Amino acid sequence: MYYKLSNMRFFLFLILSFCFTWEVCAQNATNSPYETLPLFSSDEIFEIKLKGDIRKLFNDRKENATYHPFIFSYDINNQQHSLDIRVKTRGHFRKMRANCATPPLLLNFDTLPDLAKTIFKGQNKLKLVTTCDIEKFVVQEYLVYKIYQLITEKSFQVRLVKVIFEDTKRNKTRSAKYGILLEDQNKMAKRNHSAIRKQLNVNPQTIDKESFLKMAVFQYLIGNTDWSIQYLHNIKLLVNHSGKSIVTVPYDFDMSGIVNTPYAAPAEALQLSSVRNRRYRGYCLDNMNEFESTFELFNDLKKEIYAIYQNNTLIDKTYKKNTIRYLDKFYEIINNKELSKREFQYPCDPNGTGNIIIRGLKKYKENSKKNSDK
């Protein structure tokens, strides 16, 4: 009897071991950090249309906005596709009517079976960044996402589209304007063998230092101070499956100096006169040698970062010229020991504003745990 039980246990052990090994291998094979779903495998711009009660949707800007039924159609490779989806408004600053006529949206595809045959295969929820007022700023924000994709694969994937709103209740159609389709946060996390961590008040110094410095220096490059780790303000935290490594992923760059939207303004506590003025908002590092590998990475990527703007036909000559100058100043600073020490050791100054924590909008702290649609 004992012999039979031992054999049975051994056989069961082999089955479980095989299943576990197969599952891990299958996951590693399908969830490579470099795997890209069809929507984000190309930078080709295509046109999408939302048909439904546009006015009702845009008027629904309350904190807990509800979903509205819409027909979502798009044209790619001269082929028309149409799907029934749900849409709601999302966000904080850009959701407010006083700030944006067209609020940012959340598209919910409800994992429709038909998606398997379309460019939206594998998608469920997608954020749509809309043209708030002037559409050139959408393009300029899109390019910032492309910069960060050069720096790390632990970044949000994006696709630039043209968006048409057709109000079927009033028989009115708005002309196409640029928008950004933004990768779902859980898809981004899964692609990187991680999960989203929603804990508030995380100490920035517990973040993986290499990834944190990449992110913080990037934010300095683009002139963005509108973020904080502690309040998860324009930051997502990724934790790997071992639970030992936390990585930051930034998003929402409309308040950055490099985008320079008309409504962008630095937090009063930072004592900056303009978003074009850079300020490093990482934690204090007395030893500048700790920045060496990060600065080296940005120097290695310099040609590719400049190419995003130099070779781009979607931006005008003036913006291109001003942005190149803005990048020039960044590279002048990181390659000058005196300038870089002054800028990147600013958080060590007890009389400075380097350790100010940006809390975001009123009630952001209370709502950030339950509101993951921003």
Written description of the protein model:
This protein is an alpha+beta fold and 374 residues long. 32% of the residues lie in helices and 18% in strands. It has 10 helices and 11 strands. The protein has helices spanning 2-30, 54-59, 136-151, 185-191, 209-222, 292-300, 302-310, 317-334, 337-344, 364-367; strands at 46-52, 68-76, 79-89, 105-108, 125-129, 158-167, 172-173, 177-182, 194-197, 235-240, 246-250. The strands form 2 sheets. A 7-stranded mixed beta barrel has the order 1-2-3-4-5-8-6. The longest helix is centred in the N-terminal third of the chain and has 29 residues, at 2-30. Mean pLDDT is 87; it is low at 1-34 and 362-373.
